[in-house]
Amino acid sequence: MLDRLAIDGGVPVVDADQIAPWPILDERDKAAVMRVFENGYLCGPDAPEVIGLENEWKEYIGRKYCLTTNSGTAALHMALSAINIGPGDEVIVPAYTFLASASCVLHAGAVPVFVDVDRQTYTIDPEKIEEKITDRTKAIIPVHLHGLAADMDRVMEIAKKYGLYIVEDACQAHGAEYRGRKVGTFGELAAFSLNSSKNLAGGEGGLLVVDDDTYYMRAKMLRMFGDEIDDETKLRKYNASILGYQYRNLELPATLARAQLKRLDEYNANRIQNCDFLTENLTVIPGIHPPYVPEGYKHVYWMYVVEFYPEEVEIDMLPEEFRVGMEKALFMEGVQVGQWQTMPVPAQDLFQTKKGYSASGYPWYFTEEGRKIVYRGDDYPNSVDLCRRYTVIVGIHPPNGGDLMEKYVKAIKKVFANLDVVKKHWKDNIIPHYSGSIFRAK
Fold it and tell me: Which of 164, 212, 292, 325 is placed for a possible disulfide with 422 were both Cys, Cβ 3.0 to 4.6 Å?
């Protein structure tokens, strides 16, 4: 009975109650939140917790300026607007990423042009970028995905060759490094998220970092309705000189993020230790591929992604069928698994219909070239194949540690020892997906 799969009536390896949620909230976080009540400030671009977070994050990253925002998506949009990306422009974006990496381009009035990802790292494939560059291309958004940096040497080389801006989407990669240098320090601007699932959690919110004075001032105005600030009094003139937005953050998420930042490196080290253990033990199992980390990269594992290969274990199942069967079997064993992105971004309805703003077709219909753009998911075979094969193993965050990782490995080995049972049950009416409560987001 102990070796019988849970999906077939056996006993699960992992008790769901053993998996601690993220983020870790303790007395340090409570003290930080109470400080907001004691100060009496709840909002404002110059409120003490917002300013404190901006100062601490720019010092941690090594940039001249930081602006807090109400989301990583807002930070990305502000970055593009700060460098005057707009109608008629095109921006290079990876085909496999979160929607916001591309929708921020639409919010700026420009058109996203997708590039397939590298099959091993899942980040934008530099060898495929140049073929997508036109005289309308103005920027590249490399995404540091799942906690792993994009190949920034090659991206910067291409950007320099064609005179393009780089806006880093580092929303999933707080503390990640590329060849000894933190992500968020390569582009003209970079954006981070403070969503509760992220390595640096504030509940919600974002961070925009930049060195250039002009870009900083534009972004600052964009963050608050486009209002001008009087140079002498430092007060708002209530005179919007540009189109802006309400993208400010609040004191409560800012103070929580400050408290979490003090433990970011410690927590990242815990993630790396957990994931190194999984990788060491999963590498020897045919049919499952753990994450690939190139030499010189520091992966901070916002997510731990594995892929399934039925052809390596000689089971007569398509990759997607095998992946679904494995997800269901692992889920029943108590291993928290599931996909987040199920298709390349350009395959989503937004890009298939190109309805744009109020079904007007804007921004694509702004130019004849934009009208002709057609997005086909199958044009990005690496992204498509990845979506067929991958799942996320959730629970690698602290305070979870070696005990849970050992049980995860035991459960995975148990499932791989019973692949005939996996095949029998792959169509069972089971929805294998990790619970939102793991990220305190029910």
Answer: 325
